[in-house]
Amino acid sequence: MKRENPKLWFMQSSATMVLASALLAGPAIAQDEAIRPAPVDAAKAVSRLDEVTVTARRIEENLQSVPVAVTAYSGEELKEKGVVSVGDIASFTPGFTTREANSQATALIFSIRGQLQNDVLATLDPSVGTYVDDVYWARAYGLNFNLLDMERVQVLKGPQGTLFGRNTTGGALVFTTANPSLDQASGRFTATAGSYSEQTFEGVVNVPLSDRVAVRGAVRSSDRDGYIDDIVTGEEYNDRDTLTGRLKVLFTPSDDVEIVLSAEFYDQSMNGAGTGTIFSAGLTGAYLSGFDPILRVPMPVAVPNYVDTVRNSDGDRIALDGDPFIDIEAQTFTGILSWDMGSGTLKAIAGTRSVESQNRLDLDGFAAGSGAPLHTTSAGQDLEQTSFEVQYAGNSDNQRLHYVMGATWFEESGYDETLTDLRVVPDPVILRFLGDIDNTSIGVYGQGTYDLNDKLALTLGLRYSEDEKGITTINGTSAGATNTFLTCDSGQAPPCNETYSDTYDELSYTIGADYDVSNDVMVYGKFSHGYRSGGQNLRLSGTADLDFDPETNDEFEIGMKGDFLDKTLRLNLAAYSNTISDAQRSIIVPLGAGNATVVQNAAELTTTGFELEALWAPTDNLTFQAAASVLDAEYDEYVDAGVDVSDRRIIGVPEAEFSLAMTYERDMGFAEMAARIDYAWRDDYFNNELAPSGASSTPELQDAITSPSSDTVNVRLGLDFKNGWDVAFWGRNITDDRSKTGALYLSNFGYVNGIFREPATYGLTLTRSFGGE
Question: What proportion of the chain, given as a percentage, has pLDDT over 90?
């Protein structure tokens, strides 16, 4: 639904939130001003809502005192929610969505408040940054990793840059893994058996080697059969075989200095992704004319009811001939030095990460019967990054000024390649896109908060960024039989090598104020100017501009954070309005007989929204949680090749979502029992920018590129025995919602390829802990 005046809606939402804050805070103010003894059960009431520690401002603080919108989860809460991978987090986080990239199931596309990178490329920086133990992970390949031995996960919303290693216009996803402890030896061992023959084993061991050195190791191995069947070959797709490990060493040479070294590896292989054609207007491309992936003409074998199976299925019965697969390996090494200098802490952060990935996808999603794949795409990446950051966090002598300042350096190199194979008799034609990148980024930043008095504080942050992007492209068409270039996309004669470089810079800033209405209620407001670097089009063609401009975002946000009813009710609200200039959009364009994905800038995009998070503990045993968001996004101005295209769809942004959870805990004498149920609902969203007014648009096609509204129900029943054993029965997506989560529309071939949610799964997890783990 399109609102006539998003700015007016934002002001109305803001006024409503402020009024609600005042009404709820009223009793709390009266209690603060009244001179009376604390109630007898005050300590008990306070304990119902645990204090949540976050590092949104690069120092450890109570979530309720941080004047920015943050959603935070502890490692224990992630376990209770049934969250096992990064992609699961968005189900319970208002304003945050994730979906698998069309080309790579291990690569995730993140969206916060309507800001997203809707393609995964080494030349396109994300609008939502990912940080693991303070190190920025630049690329999405391998981001759908298992959450192994996490201390906390935070979702920061809105432009980032004045405190973090890179600039982003949408937000940041911050992972903090558990550090070694000098206290005592501890550990836990976990075994899980679940649906589709799932077998998962996890071990965590913490060992103090002396009073100055400790080591912590964690490893997780998981494999599972596929749940998508090939009705022609009997092949199973979307199985899972992953191995994740991490080793951390803590060294404290003195009471003031701490050094943490970390080495992490990730390995995943999958037979698939198993994706099928969900819509076809008949294959109209020059090389594919005459085939229809739904009618299967010609058909390799007789398959009863094939048409009905494909049109009405949830994606579990398909017929492929492209031999799809995914293999990915990643290694990350990190070193962090922290030095307590009395008035502040100096921190140095060094990191290096490498990713190697190979995958193939059967684009047409059907077996053509020609004896060879008809339309496939293969991709390979070999990327390496190195970064270094130094920061100092301190306070003034009078403790009124709290500040963080620092500098960052980042370098990245490697290649990102895509090969699209179009079957032509007698030889295939291959569209080749290869980019060899060389990127460097530097940044200098500082942010300070000054307490004007005991209630009012002002915040100011600045950052200067300079990004140098370099690329050598080798793009063109080659003959499959000889693997030699026939033509170059640039129009030149082979060889097709071309080298380009560009430099971008920007001053980002934030200014804000927060006011303590009472000891338990805070209101705040801020304005932020965020920046995302420009770059070059890796898949350069004659129809695309060579480069694209930086994206900037101006965001207004107001919010309230409060604990009420003797600290048994926590309510956090935020309203915002974003104006994104030169918004970077990835679109699929026809290229000869094939397609290419190129990045262009939309002049202006506006998003406005409202977010709510609530936690209520009416008794010591019972807890309720709720979260919700409403978002309106629309192009104000978007011109493509001189044509107004501002009615294009905005990809991957649902207008509304909410989640509910209930936890019941009870001491049964022999064990602590904990039962939890989580429900999450998400509105529909678009997977392609095709406007309803587009020449090829039909109601059936619009339905095919739209992911419908969907819901997820997870349950968990756990018994924590007092001898160190823990057993949990769990179910994920127990309503078996198989909604479409992604759709790839190839316009000049006339078909849509679909991705569907995983089916319901159930399992049993047994854990043995010792030493306080």
Answer: 50
